[in-house]
Design goal:
Enoyl-CoA hydratase, lyase, globular, lipid metabolism, alpha/beta, Enoyl-CoA_hydra_C, 2-enoyl-CoA Hydratase, Chain A, domain 1, 3-stranded mixed beta sheet, Enoyl-CoA_hydra/iso
Length: about 260
């Protein structure tokens, strides 16, 4: 198991998966490999009846890939294609895990961080946290399922506005639009998520898991088709001149100069 991803067991039947990879819990190879191993282990663990996913620290729930590492992905032919396929496989392991999965969003969930939060069945968000899909600001689109899962969570109109503008919203608005299930007092998101997980873990596991599957599974075929389209469009945007400029501008801390090509 990666040192960046750990499991604790605060209550009977409850596992807490924590990503601790300073400074912002970025989903590079170490974190992704850790998540893959942990969730592959938990899915076959009958003693685990509910799971909480959270990040360590107050800078981010989780962040997307490290922008500086994208230079290598840009330079190596097919590298981003392979990386995105690997990431999608890991996200699917997390999303289809039979146990209910509760996200404890203790800090901002932006870009890839929100995409992984959207894998959760329920979300508890700290009062001071924020959320958004901001990829358009660097010449990209969400590539970890955000275009599909955000739309399914909050509806077409709101999801479209958030993605086209790159707007970041605060916790009360996230609750209002149905993105999260509960807003906790500052510093209490994890505790509230564990409390919720404990109450679910006390219910009969066969019924709980059947209910999750009944809700989730009917939309899987449409989701798979949408994810395939998203991936193709993400790779097209990744290969654009504006994406290269967006990365460079981000690293140089300047405003990008778009050529729309």
């Amino acid at each position: 198991m990666s040192d960046a991803v750990s499991i604790s067991r605060p209550a009977d039947g409850v596992a807490v998966v924590t990503v601790d990879f300073p400074p912002v819990n970025a989903m590079g190879q170490e974190v992704l490999a850790g998540l893959e191993k942990v969730f592959s282990q938990l899915r076959d663990d009958s003693a685990t009846r509910a799971i909480v996913l959270t990040g360590a620290g107050d800078k981010a729930f989780m962040a997307g890939g490290d922008i500086s590492s994208f230079e290598r992905l840009l330079a190596e032919d097919g590298a981003m294609d392979r990386f995105s396929a690997w990431t999608r496989g890991i996200f699917e392991i997390i999303e289809v895990i039979p146990q209910p999965l509760i996200g404890a969003v203790q800090a901002p969930a932006v870009g890839g961080g929100l995409e992984i939060a959207l894998l959760c069945d329920l979300l508890v968000m700290d009062a001071n946290a924020k959320a958004g899909l901001t990829e358009v600001g660097i010449g990209l689109i969400p590539g970890g399922g955000g275009t599909q899962r955000l739309t399914r969570r909050v509806g077409l109109s709101i999801a479209t506005e958030l993605m086209l503008t790159g707007k970041v919203i605060r916790a009360p608005q996230a609750l209002e639009i149905g993105l999260v299930n509960k807003v906790s007092e500052a510093g209490k998101a994890l505790a509230d998520a564990v409390e919720l997980a404990t109450s679910i873990a006390a219910k009969p596991a066969v019924a709980v898991q059947a209910a999750k599957r009944a809700v989730r599974e009917p939309g899987r075929a449409d989701l798979e088709a949408g994810l395939e389209l998203e991936r193709a469009l993400f790779l097209k945007a990744f290969a654009s001149a504006d994406c290269k400029e967006g990365f460079q501008a981000f690293l140089e801390k300047r405003a990008p100069q778009w050529t729309h090509s």
